[in-house]
Amino acid sequence: MENRTSLVSLDRDELLKIMKDHAQPAYRANQAVLWLAKGAQIDEMENLPLALRDALSSKFRSFSLDIDSIIGDSKTGAKKYLYLCYDDIIIESVNLKYQYGSALCVSTQAGCRMRCVFCESARNGLLRNLTWDEMLSQALLAQRGSEERIKNIVLMGSGEPLDNYSQTKKFIDKLTSDDYGYSKRRITLSTCGIVPGIEQMAKDKLFVNLAISLHAPFHSMRERLMPVEKAYPLPMLLSAAESFAKASGRRITFEYSVIEGLNDTIACAKELKQITSAVSCLVNLIDINESTGSFRRNSGQAVASFSRKLENLSIPHTVRRNLGSSINAACGQLSGFSQRS
Q: How far is CA 231 from the centre of its chain?
């Protein structure tokens, strides 16, 4: 992939200067942004003069990524997008179809260094952070291939968003600007529990929806599953979550992958009731997905059984639909990155 500056990486003043340099009126910058929001390449921006399109194409590209391939799941309608970066890294995002509309799962890093044992993204470690414009390019290029406007953006692809905080914040700021028009209520950031990042979100008033990967209610069990527990143990994490919920007025989602015979006991349910009682929250149960890691798919009714335990304890919760597993695009299955030879 040729490493030219992308139009999507430029701010409004830079676009205005480009138009001025080409003796074009300022409204051409607005037209270009409208086309970018549709996922259009420069030569497809039909209401720009042909000479301007040719001049822009000689110096710029529309996006910071190219679509390498798209893999579809005919049963659920899920689509996995593989993007080629300028340095020949291939990263992934997933468009998931729900009754209320579609949600795009965006990657924030090529790989991950958090080493959660059930997650494919961390298997090969962290290669590099993605830039905010690479994140934005994922969203806009996926929009191009979608029959309807992507309703929700979830930062749940490969990588830990709060381990790449500055670029993640820039992405959210740009996505919620007048140029692209997303509401923060339509954006969810998922973290394994980087407490300083959660605290910084509150300071910056980055009040998107916050989802925290909990997966175990006991310190020793969570530490086995998620090494981040060593640095930011549960009491610290829950305190940060409570502070964010109060500052933002948003309910926290605790993501909980049910692992049969490990974290689905009545003792776990009772402890979950105890540790979440002080936080405005919802527990989202996830049926653990097949991967090359330490765990395999549950048999039978593990999630339904644990859901009944939570219901008996009056713990607000939902069960996540399993979408995209047939194309290795479900929760925990994104491979992180691959390097084109």
A: 23
If residue 211 lies in a helix (H) or strand (E), which one and from where to where?
Answer: strand 209-213
192 is catalytic: no
Within its chain, how far is the Cα of 28 from the centroid?
31
Span 130-142, average pLDDT: 97
Q: What whole-number distance in Å separates Cα of residue 157 and Cα of residue 73?
A: 17
Please state, rounded to an integer, the average pLDDT across all residues of the chain. 92
Residues in the chain: 341
Judged against a pLDDT cut of 50, whether residue 324 lies above it is answered with no
Phi and psi (nearest 5°) for 247? -70, -40
Q: Which residue in this structure is represented by tokens 């080409």?
A: 22
Sequence-ordered list of residues with C-beta below 8 angstroms from that of 135, at least 6 positions apart, any chain: 106, 107, 108, 167, 168, 171
pLDDT at 302: 92
Sign of the Cα torsion 226, 229, 235, 239 reads negative
Whole-number Å distance between alpha carbons of 227 and 192: 10
Q: Note the pLDDT tens digit of each residue in 301-315.
A: 899 999 999 999 999
How distant, in Å, are the alpha carbons of 42, 81, 87 from that of 174? 20, 21, 24
User: How far apart are the C-alpha atoms of 323 and 103, rounded to whole Å?
Assistant: 11
- Dihedral sign computed on CA atoms, order 274, 279, 280, 286: negative
Q: Please identify which of the residues 92, 120, 134, 260 carries the catalytic annotation.
A: 92
Both tokens assigned to 116:
């959660």
Residue 153, both tokens:
């953006």
Per annotation, catalytic residue among 112, 268, 281, 331: 331
331 catalytic? Reply is yes
**Tens digits of per-residue pLDDT, 194-251?**
999 999 999 999 999 999 999 999 999 999 999 999 999 999 999 999 999 999 999 9
Q: Say what the pLDDT of residue 329 is.
A: 43
Contact partners, residue 249, CB within 8 Å, separation at least 6? 207
Q: CB–CB of 320/331 below 8 Å? A: yes
